[in-house]
Every structure is written in C-alpha cells, then in structure tokens.
Specification:
heterodimer; A: about 675 residues; alpha/beta; 2 domains; five-stranded parallel sheet; B: about 350 residues; 3 domains; seven-stranded parallel sheet; 15 helices; 8 strands; about 50% helix; chaperone (chain B)
Chain lengths: ~675, ~350
C-alpha cells in the first residue's frame, strides 16, 4: 500500500469538554490541550454561570468552579482567552439559558481586542428545550426562552455569520433515557420549534431563511449499541434533508446537510472496572465516524474516569489521543461511505425513520414540543424509557460488563494513585472568584452599568433583540448575576413538570418481583412499627439540574410503598431542611452530581440540626468519590450511593434499614 | 401468648417497638398556639401516628387546641377539581396574594396513593408546584397521601386541618377531584371551591354527576384561553344555583388565570364573602360541628364497622354524645373507641 499517495478526508474538529476552578486555570488547560493537537475548544461553564447567578449568590455556594469555569464578567472572559486568538479559534460553549450573555461577552471581548465579530467562529449550545427535559439549567419560562434563542439567531446571521447560534441537542435526551427513535423525534421537533419561532419573528426575509436553516447544527449522543447509533445518524441526515425541504423550502441540498457535533455517551460509563470505559468510548466514537455520509463535524470524548469524578489533564489527553489514532493512523478517512448500499443498514435506518415520524406526528398533534413539555408528556415518556433500561440492567437482560456480570476484577493500578485517579478542583477557587468579582464591582463605572442594565430591561420588555443591549452590558462590566436578574424581573422563572407522576404499572415494576414483594412488606411493617407510613423527601441542593437519578429514586421508592415528597432541583440547604420539617419525613435523600457534595451536604446537616431534626437520617447519591463518601459518613450521613450501586432493590432495602436503625429498630439485612 | 385481635390495638404488637419518644400534648399545644413551626410539624406527625399511645396523645392535643378559636376563627377552604385543571398553580397564586396581604397560610396537599397491591406508596408532587422560591415563615405545607381511604381524602385530614386552624389564618386543603372526593372535601371545608378546566369533558361530566351541589365557589381556570373559558363559566353558572342550596348565597362563578395572575383577588373576595355569610347566618360553628361529627362516625365505622357503631348505641347515640361535648369531640371520640374495644374484648 502507498499511504502517501492516498487522498484523505479532512478530519473532524477535535475538542475536549473542559473548564474548572477559574478563568486563569482553565486558560492554562486550554493552551496545554491545543499544544497537544486539539483543534477546537469546548468550554464547560460552572453552574452559577449557566443559571445566571453571581459567584457570591447564596444559591451558588459550593458550586463556583466545580463543573466548569466561572465567568462573572468580561474580565473573566478576557482571562479565559488570554493568548488565544479569537479570530482563529473555533470555540464551542456549552451554555443555554445564559447563552445570549456569554455570546455577548465573547463578542464584546472581540470588539475590545479590535477583532471584527464577522471573523468569530464557534457554537453556543443555546438549546433550552432539553434543559427542561433533562439538564435542568433553565431559568425563564419557554416563551421568553425561545425568544432569546431567536434573538441570538437573528443577530448572528447578520453580524457574526460564521457562528452556530444554536446546537439542537439530542445528547441529553439519551442521557435522560431516550431511545434512538425518541432522540430523533424530539430533537427534530425542537429544531422545528426554533425555526418556526425565528420565522414568526419576521426579522428574516423569506429569501434569506435558508441561511438560518443552514446555521442550525445539532449535538448528538452515541451509545454503545454502535451499529444502531450509526443508523440513527444516517436517519437524522435523511429526515433533516426532507424536513428542511418540505417545511422550510430550502432548495440548495448543501444547506440541508445535517451538521452535528458529538459527545459520546456518559450514561453507560461505569464506576466498577472503569478501564472498560476506554473501549466503550472508542466503540461509540466509531458510530459517529465510520459512515462518511453521517460523520460528525466535531467530536469530544469523555474520559475513562468520568463516572468517578473530574478527569485529570492526562485522562483528557488519553481521550484526545483516541480521536487522533482513528483520524491519523487508521485508513478510515481514505474511503467514501462504507455503508452505502448495505441492505441491513438501510432497513434499520428505515425502521428508525418510521418510528420517529410516528412520534413526531404524535407531538405535533399535541401542539408541538413546547406544549408536550409543558403538559409533562415528553418527560413522562423519557422517565418511562429510562426506568425500562434500569429494569433490564437489574434483571440482567441488559448486560453491562463489570457491573451486572463478570464482576470479578484484579486490583486496578489506574485508581491506586494518591489522587484516587481523579482531579480535585481548587478549594480556594470559590473564595478567589468572589473576591475578584467584588473588586471588579468597585472598579467599574456605576453610571454606565446602570444605563446598560436599563437598556437591557427595556429591550426585554419591548421585544427588541436582546443582543445589542447585552453587548453594551458586557462592555460596561455588568455581571452574570445582574444580567440574569434583570431578565428574571421581566420574564419570571420556570417551574418544570417533573415526570415523576408516571403511574405504577404492576407488570413493569423495576427489579425482581419476589424482591419487590419482600421490600413492600418491609416498608409496610416498618411503617406500622413507627406508627405511620414511611415518608421520604427527595431533593437536589445546589444548582445541578441533572434530575434523572433523583427522579428514579423517587419513583422506585414510591413503587415499594414509600410516601415520597419530591421537592425538585435548585434548592438551598435551608429549603430542604424546611421541607423535611414541614413534611415530617423519616429520611432525607439528596442527589448531587456537580461535585459540590461536601459543602452542600454539610450545610443541609447544619440546617437540620438548627431545626432539631438531627435524628432524621440523611442519605446522598451522586458522583461521589470513595474518599469523600468516608468524610460524609463522618459528618453524619447515613449512606452514600454512587453509580456502582446499580441495583435499586438493594438501595431500597438499605434505606429501610437506615430508617429502622435511626428509630431503634433492628436492621433486616440484605434481600434474600 | 402474644396479644391478638382487638387486644393488640392498645398494646405494642411488637416488643422491639420503636422507642422514639412522643411529645407531651399539652405542652405541644401551647407551642402550636404560639405558632412555632417545629411544634406544628411535630403535632401533625403525632396526629398521623397510629400507635396506641400516640392516639391517646392525639386526642389530648386536639382537646387542648379546641375551643373558641377553632369554632369561630380562621377559614378552612377546600380546593378540588379534575387533574390538569391547574389547581396547584392556582393555589400558588392564591397563597402569593394572601401572603402579600399579611395573612398566614397552612396547606394540606392531598395526592392519591397507589393501590395496596401495588405497594400503596405515593408520589407527593404538590409541594414543588405550590411553594414560592424564597423562604417564608408565614406558609406551611404538608403533603399527604390519601392512603386509599374511602372517598379519597385520608381521615387524618380533618384533625390536621383542626391543628393548622389553631395557628394559621387560612387553612387550605387541596385534593384531586375524582368523583367521591368532592363529597369528602365538603365535610371538611367551610368553603369549597371547585376548579374547572375550560373545554374539558371533566367539567361536563361533573355538571351531570350531581356533585355540583357541593362547591360554594367555582373558579374557571385558564381564562386566558378566552372563549372556551367563558363558555364553561356560563355552563356552570346555569347549573350551579339550585333550589336545594342555601338561601342567601349566590354560588359565584369566577374566571381566573393562575399563569397570568388574574382574577385571584376577586376569588379571594368570594372566599371572604362566603365566610362572612356563614358567620352572619350563624352557620359557621354549626357547619364545623357537623363536619366534626361526620369525621367521628367515619373513623369509628372505618375501624370497627357497623357492628362497632352498634356497640356504642348507633348513629343517633353518637350524634347525641358529640352534641353534648362541643369543642371537645376528639376526646369524646377516643372515649367511644375505648368503649367499643372493651365491649369487643368482653364479647370474646
């Protein structure tokens, strides 16, 4: 063979989703990653930035710099892109409710550096629909939120033409349990909702509308069933092509191309035998790379240890090298589409397309995706799919190596290091960010800030495009919390349907039937011994909105006989303790995935003590490293559940025993 | 021999029974009347507790809380309606307005339990839908499962409302209307409000079913929908005032929108007007006494059946005894329980 003479396709953009602690620390990480051959940036923001709060807001406590970088004002943005030429970089920002704001900071920074915004390229995720369904970093109700998305699209089409203003996400739908058919259907419905909204705004001339369609890109998930996933992406391409032609009359086939970036599946990554995640990630990458006609434009891979905690620079490097090996060592990029003409692939694609069409019709009949979200329909469907998946794992029907089969393992040298194989964020980051923000507030011109915020509020009320006034805010030194609060005052805040109101189906209760019967008897007899049915509070403190785990625990606990008060997301420790008191619960269950478990759980315990409720046991679930679990136990937490505890029945049996022990009753032990 | 049958009711059936101490009811009552939140919570837990020792103390607690205030003050409001009518959002809007006016509110939010053969558990999601974002000393929400009890409202709701009435200006009970529930809620609330959903079959069904005789106030939600809301309101308006209802009350039909926050003040006005109407006509204490008696009969019947009722002399005798002990009927009920249990034992 002659490698040198073969024409190769250009590889996709290679990124790693990253950011932590501070703008400065993240900038160092970005420059290191770029030096290693990464070709684009993917910025992870912390939760206060994603939900429009300042670092010194009470709700931000413990969250600053945890799941991403804190960006409170334009000086932070400047530091984040220090020595990175904005006009040559392709920057993806995972930002949604506050997307117009972060984009304004980016544009403002470019203007300050004398760079023409027309040269900026990159993506703001800016898809609010999946935030309502899964990711939970929404702020405003659907109406105003969709308007903000339309505003960014209308603005960038004219002033930042190389920017992808919105990235319709099916990624998080799969994380919330969506089947491939559901992923196709709901993502395409979401795209239609966005395009319809832009069309209705009247800001774009009909002959220019195909440019808007062309700028719509997608952010997709790829799971371990990689043949089906590959077919899903081919189905996406076919359906998008058809939809943009028939519904939006886009004549030029090039403008109808389904453009997508991908982060492969995190849901299937396991905490036991975490090294197995490496082959999972590689296989999942194949799903989005093998088929040239349905190949991703940009790929970011998770690290092997994501189910354990935050990845270290070396873990991220390993993920990047996987992409580089596939792109540069293998012969993949030398071929046209290797699946064209395969009857097996074609049949599978057909089946997915037909299923998705049916579900799209179903959603359209309910008045579109927004109505179907507000009614709770979509959330219910997703929770039901997810429960089905968990049931299959628990019954062993769905095999997960190292989790529900082949569990025996030699000790892994990867996790033996003193850091436990994960990265710790800088504990001083929150304090330093607050100090930096407070110093910034003193240094800026208050009159400019007030005038800019006045302009922002006026634009929000009048319906004028939000971007110009937001850019003025950025340049005046307005903070993320001030921007978020100004719009909260005009738009109000969203209260979500939870999806937990799915009815019990006696045939489909999660777990083995005899175990469920035994659990129900234990829950009932313990309730009788205590004088009233067992009552459980489930809630999520802090800003992390990934509510899937909390919802499943709530539904499962209900199924085995608990009376469950589901209190939702974004709660302060004070609100949780107050709910525990008012509701008279026997146990408080907290779910935290943002890494801020130490601070938040400790605050909840303090608040309970203040209310004389120290005797109410507290359990915690989430991505909690062993070392922290031990510390939490020392603080008084009764049990900690992590992704390795996949059997819900075992968790429930343990919860009953925790309540029994807290009330002077004997433990009943593991299920038979 | 372990205790069996009725004998077991007054003793711990399990020698390894919990040692969690029960509060002293009289002291608790003093703290509840001082509006201490922790005491309110602990009192509600006690009223929910079915252990024999707890039942005794519950009766003492309620006796200590009863009296003038319970008979004459406060306002017990029942809100019911079909699923999807937007009750929780409406309740949230009502509460916001009451709190702005400086009135304190206690809420009992009742959700259905799953069937006993499916574990009997419940997901109580009203709290998340009702509560305001910020901490509020003047609002207290307790969620309850109906526990598959006859009629759809748990029998714990009445004593719990009584407790909340001792320390909150407004006590609001929210239930999902599923036919029978409306009859139950009518035996709890001073004022019953039915929340209708425009253009829905539920409301039409409801109008036909005869349960329309129960509510005192009708709220047609989602008035922002326009014509369908007006249509539903006029349909209800035509059917609501019937000759067998109270003279002097107009059974208002009110158009509201929880999301647009419109019509809320008017609905408040109807509630206040209905309460004045009851008080002025001398009906309020009669109504509450009647509700109290209905509850006593219901719990005795639930626990002991018709046979048990006969053992204390039948319905008429129960009614007579309760009438003689106004304001102290919880203790009288506990006495009747004891009486029935001892008769059962002696008939063994």
């Amino acid at each position: 063979m002659d490698v040198l003479q073969t024409k190769r396709d250009r590889p996709w953009l290679m990124r790693t989703y990253s950011g932590h602690s501070s703008a400065k620390a993240s900038n160092t990480l970005y420059r290191t990653n770029l030096a290693k051959g990464q070709t684009g940036l993917s910025v992870a923001f912390d939760l206060p930035t994603q939900t429009g709060y300042d670092a010194d807001s009470p709700l931000a406590r413990g969250e600053v710099g945890k799941v991403g970088v804190p960006i409170s004002h334009i000086e932070d943005m400047d530091q984040l892109f220090d020595q990175i030429p904005l006009d040559q970089m392709n920057t993806a920002m995972t930002i949604n409710a506050t997307a117009p704001w972060l984009l304004s900071l980016y544009i403002g920074l470019a203007q300050r550096r004398g760079i023409d915004p027309k040269k900026l390229s990159g993506t703001t995720q800016n898809d609010i629909i999946k935030e309502y369904l899964s990711r939970g970093t929404y702020i405003y109700p659907p109406g105003p939120s969709m308007r903000l998305i339309a505003d960014t699209i209308n603005y960038t089409i004219k002033h930042v033409p190389k920017w992808n203003p919105t990235n319709i996400c099916s990624y998080h739908l799969q994380e919330a349990g969506a089947t491939p058919v559901q992923e196709l259907a709901y993502a395409l419905c979401a795209a239609m909702a966005v395009l319809d909204r832009v069309q209705a705004s009247g800001e774009i001339r009909p002959d220019e509308f195909s440019q808007v369609v062309e700028r719509i890109s997608f952010f997709v998930n790829a799971g371990i069933r990689f043949v089906e996933e590959c077919c899903k992406l081919r189905a996406f391409g076919e359906m998008w092509d058809e939809l943009t032609l028939t519904r939006y009359k886009v004549e030029d086939p090039k403008l109808r191309r389904f453009r997508y970036g991908v982060q492969v599946n995190s849901l299937g990554l396991t905490e036991p035998q975490p090294e197995n995640n490496v082959q999972r990630i590689v296989l999942e990458m194949l799903a989005v790379a093998l088929s040239k006609g349905a190949r991703a434009r940009a790929i970011q891979l998770p690290a092997w240890n994501e189910a354990m905690g935050l990845p270290r620079p070396w873990d991220q490097q390993w993920a990047l090298r996987m992409q580089q090996v596939l792109a540069f060592e293998t012969d993949l990029l030398e071929y046209e589409d290797i699946f064209d003409g395969s009857p097996v692939i074609a049949a599978k694609v057909r089946q997915l397309v037909e299923g998705a069409r049916k579900e799209i019709a179903n959603v359209e009949a309910q008045g579109g995706i927004i109505a179907a979200i507000e009614s709770g329909y979509v959330k219910r469907e997703l929770v039901a799919s997810h429960m089905k998946r968990l049931r299959a794992i628990e019954s062993g029907e769905l095999k997960i190596i190292g989790v529900n089969c082949f569990q025996e393992s030699a000790e892994s040298p990867l996790t033996l290091g003193s850091d436990g194989g994960i990265m710790k964020t800088d504990p001083a980051a929150e304090r330093e960010q607050i100090e930096r923000l407070q110093a910034h507030r003193k240094n800026r011109n208050d009159a400019d800030v007030q005038a800019a915020l006045q302009g922002l509020g006026d634009a929000a009320r009048s319906g004028e495009n939000i971007m110009p006034s937001s850019i003025r805010c950025a340049l005046a030194g307005v903070s993320t919390g001030e921007w978020g609060d100004s719009l909260r005052a005009v738009f109000g805040e969203f209260r979500p349907p939870t999806g937990i109101d799915i009815a019990i189906d006696s045939r489909a209760v999660l777990g083995k039937k005899d175990q469920v019967t035994e659990l129900r008897a234990r829950v009932a007899s313990t309730g009788e011994a205590l004088g009233r049915p067992l009552k459980l509070l489930v809630g999520k403190p802090g800003l992390d909105g990934h509510s899937n785990g909390a919802e499943q625990v709530a539904v499962k606990a209900r199924d085995v006989g608990f009376e469950v008060v589901y209190d939702g997301i974004r709660l302060t420790p004070q609100q949780i303790a107050q709910a525990a008191e008012e509701e008279g619960v026997h146990m408080v269950g907290l779910s935290i995935l943002s890494g801020s478990h130490m601070e938040l759980v400790e605050s909840v315990l303090d608040e309970l003590r203040v209310r004389d409720l120290a005797s109410v046991p507290v359990i915690a679930g989430g991505i909690i490293p062993q070392e922290d679990a031990t510390k939490l136990a020392a603080l008084g937490v009764s049990a900690v559940y992590t992704p390795k505890d996949f059997s819900f029945n075992t968790i429930m049996a343990d919860m009953v025993d925790v309540i029994r022990a807290a009330n002077g009753l004997g433990r009943l032990g593991p299920l038979p | 021999m372990p205790p069996t049958g009725w004998d077991a009711l007054d003793r711990c059936p399990d020698p390894r029974m919990t040692q969690v101490p029960l509060p002293d009811p009289e002291q608790l009552a003093v703290r509840i009347l001082r509006r201490e939140r922790a005491a309110v919570a602990s009192g509600l837990n006690l009223l929910d507790n079915k252990l024999a020792a707890a039942r005794q103390r519950s009766a003492r607690l309620l006796a200590a809380l009863s009296g003038e205030r319970a008979l004459n003050d406060g306002h017990l409001i029942g809100v019911t309606g079909p699923p999807g009518a937007g009750k929780s959002s409406l309740v949230a809007a009502l509460i916001r307005e009451w709190r702005l006016a400086g009135r304190t509110v206690g809420v009992l939010a009742v959700d259905p339990s799953s069937r006993p053969e499916l574990g009997g558990g419940a997901l109580l999601g009203d709290r998340i839908r009702i509560k305001n974002a910020s901490y509020d000393e003047g609002l207290f929400i307790r969620s309850l499962a109906n526990r598959n009890q006859l009629g759809g409202v748990a029998s714990e709701v009445w004593p719990m409302s009584w407790l909340l009435l001792a320390c909150f200006d407004i006590v609001l009970i929210e239930t999902v209307g599923v036919g029978q529930t409306e009859i139950d809620i009518a035996e709890i609330g001073d004022t019953v409000c039915y929340v209708a959903q425009p253009a829905s079959g539920d409301t039409i069904q409801y109008l036909k079913s005869g349960i329309i005789e129960i509510p005192d106030v009708f709220a047609v939600n989602k008035s922002d929908l326009g014509a369908p809301a007006h249509k539903t309101a006029s349909e209800i308006g035509r059917s609501a005032p019937r000759q067998d209802r109270r003279d002097g009350w107009d059974y208002p039909v009110c158009l509201v929108s929880a999301t647009m926050n419109s019509g809320i003040k008017a609905l408040h006005g109807h509630f206040a007007r209905h309460r004045s109407f009851l008080a002025d006509a001398g009906l309020l204490d009669k109504l509450r006494t009647r509700h109290q008696s209905a509850w006593v009969v219901r719990v005795l019947k639930e626990e002991f059946g018709t046979f048990g009722i006969e053992l204390v002399g039948g319905y008429a005798e129960i009614g007579r005894r309760l009438k003689e002990t106004p304001g102290n009927q919880f203790e009288e009920c506990q006495r009747m329980r004891q009486q029935i249990i001892s008769r059962f034992k002696s008939s063994d």
